[in-house]
UniProtKB/TrEMBL annotation:
Main location per the UniProt record: cytoplasm
MF terms in GO: uroporphyrinogen decarboxylase activity
Keyword Lyase set for record: yes
Pathway, per record: Porphyrin-containing compound metabolism; protoporphyrin-IX biosynthesis; coproporphyrinogen-III from 5-aminolevulinate: step 4/4
Catalytic activity: uroporphyrinogen III + 4 H(+) = coproporphyrinogen III + 4 CO2
Sites where the protein binds substrate: R36, Q37, A38, G39, R40, D86, Y163, T218, H336
Disulfide bond keyword on record: no
Protein name according to UniProt: Uroporphyrinogen decarboxylase
Ranges where the Uroporphyrinogen decarboxylase (URO-D) domain occurs: 31-40, 151-167
InterPro entries: UROD/MetE-like_sf, Uroporphyrinogen_deCO2ase_HemE, Uroporphyrinogen_deCOase
Job of this protein: Catalyzes the decarboxylation of four acetate groups of uroporphyrinogen-III to yield coproporphyrinogen-III.
Top-rank taxon: Bacteria
A Pfam match: URO-D
Length: 363
């Protein structure tokens, strides 16, 4: 099942505007994809998930993971595919016992509570415990047939640690903050292991065929500016330093996304990443003025805008395009994941509007 990547046999990329925009090279129209573009807002996803049995079985079945990756691309002219998997694959492979409680989100049977718990953790082998992810990457690349590039991803060390220490999703992050502020050496030992593991995992995804990678720092924005640098940014910078930046004769762009990280754009851009993901709480014109000379920007429509009537969605797309202005360096996206109860047709309106309304900005 784990055929070796063979770039010589791979078809040339037909639509590379997503990769070009991340490198600020000229494009014909602004590329667009949607965070969480595969998922429960699509009836065909629910059917495939039911066939798999549960969410992790879906992730572990390369053919079905490939199927749900491609589903949104059959409906909408998206400019990139994103691997169907989850950020919690690494903690699961580290032996924490991931499970999903219906309606409750992810949970761990054995959360991290002590220095001894951290010491016990080994780095998972990307072609061992995590081989199912690499098999999904290889299968998706084969089935994409060069139509659009494939994005690989991971959670940031801080974001993964929040789930591992809290034992699941959290609102107040009390356990991990207690650890950060009273026993910081334990948390740093965990974050260092996670940074090494994420680096190996993303490099293996690149070897398996991912053409760009993104780090999701969903919970970095719950930290103070100083604590963000110490517990999140520093480890993402270490990952950026350790990543392969070229594969199959092309650059492999890296995008960092800290939700609620608008205050810290300059320091995120200074890590050496190629692009910075923006949530909707920042004006993209301000973001471009601050860091647009260094990096590309990805974002940033409020995902709740997809509840609005089509004309309102189109106006929002037009306003964000005008905010970014002319030239390359913008990948249109939602500022966070698509909600599970938006009408799929509204996602289509959004994608079409980006392509149609962005033409004048690329002449
Ligand atoms: O079908 C289901 O019931 C499971 C829901 C689900 C899905 C569809 C989970 C559980 N994960 C996923 C897929 C997923 N997760 C993708 C797929 C690719 C895509 O189409 O975009 C990606 C990129 C993720 C990444 C992810 N998982 C993040 C980072 C991005 C973000 O949204 O902030 C986070 C924080 C997770 C954790 C997670 N996994 C699943 C859920 C419900 C959650 C969030 C729990 C929470 O709110 O704390």
């Amino acid at each position: 099942m784990s055929e070796k990547p063979d770039s010589a046999q791979r078809p040339a990329l037909k639509n590379d505007r997503y990769l070009r925009a991340l490198l600020k090279q000229p494009v014909d129209v602004t590329p667009v994809w949607m965070m969480r573009q595969a998922g429960r807002y699509l009836p065909e996803y629910k059917a495939t998930r039911a066939e798999a049995g549960d969410f992790m079985s879906l992730c572990k079945n390369a053919e079905l993971a490939c199927e749900v990756t491609l589903q949104p691309l059959r409906r909408f002219p998206l400019d990139a595919a994103i691997l169907f998997s989850d950020i919690l694959t690494i903690p699961d492979a580290m032996g924490l016992g991931l499970y999903f409680e219906t309606g409750e989100g992810p949970r761990f049977e054995r959360p991290i509570q002590s220095a001894a718990d951290v010491a016990k953790i080994g780095l998972p082998d990307p072609e061992g415990e995590l081989q199912y992810v690499m098999n999904a990457v290889r299968t998706i690349r084969r089935e994409l047939k060069g139509e659009v590039p494939l994005i690989g991803f991971s959670g940031s060390p801080w974001t993964l640690a929040t789930y591992m220490v809290e034992g699941g999703s959290s609102k107040a992050f009390t356990k991990i903050k207690k650890m950060a502020f009273s026993e910081p050496q334990i948390l740093h030992a965990l974050l260092a292991k996670l940074a090494d593991s994420v680096t190996e995992y993303l490099n293996a995804q690149i070897d398996a065929g991912a053409q760009s990678v993104m780090v999701f720092d969903t919970w970095g924005g719950v930290l103070s500016p100083r604590d963000y640098r110490e517990f999140s940014l520093q480890y993402m910078a270490r990952i950026v330093d350790g990543l392969k930046r070229e594969s199959e004769g092309r650059k492999v762009p890296v995008t960092l996304f800290t939700k609620n990280g608008g205050m810290w754009l300059e320091s995120i851009a200074a890590t050496g990443c190629d692009a910075v993901g923006l949530d909707w709480t920042i004006d993209i014109a301000d973001a471009r003025a601050r860091i647009g000379d260094k990096v590309a920007l990805q974002g940033n429509m409020d995902p709740s805008m997809l509840y609005a009537p089509p004309a309102r969605i189109e106006k929002e797309v037009a306003d964000i395009l005008a905010g970014f202005g002319s030239g390359s360096g913008h990948v249109f996206n939602l500022g966070h994941g698509i909600h599970l109860d938006v009408p799929p047709e509204h996602a289509g309106v959004f994608v079409d509007a980006v392509h149609r309304l962005s033409q004048p900005y690329h002449q």
